[in-house]
Specification:
Length: about 110
């Protein structure tokens, strides 16, 4: 992975973290987006799966397609930070999926 692609990927992951947190806060403060819990749940689950797909793709790329992973990063610290960012995005995506699932199966207000 060249440095330009790595930089774009870091930006994409950062935007996904911000969007996931914004979505979670919006549902927490407004209680609903579409006034129908089923639709809110479907949106949340699909959005959460989309968020989780990026770190999963990075992991598959790292494990199977990139043999020289130690040469991609300038230092061990940058590799650890890259892994931490991927885990953060995965956590945020899991939270969004959880919120969507609870909206989908929750009782009607």
């Amino acid at each position: 992975m060249d440095q330009q692609r790595l930089g774009r990927n870091i930006m994409t992951l950062s935007v996904l973290v911000v969007l996931g947190i914004a979505y979670s806060n919006l549902l927490y403060s407004q209680r609903t987006l579409t006034r129908m819990n089923n639709v809110d749940g479907i949106i949340g689950v699909v959005f959460g799966l989309y968020i989780c797909s990026h770190p999963a793709a990075n992991l598959v790329d790292m494990l199977f397609f990139r043999r020289g992973i130690r040469y991609q990063f300038s230092s061990r610290r940058s590799a650890v930070l890259w892994l931490a960012l991927n885990m953060l995005v995965l956590l945020i995506g899991g939270i969004v999926i959880f919120i969507g699932t609870t909206r989908f199966i929750g009782r009607a207000d």
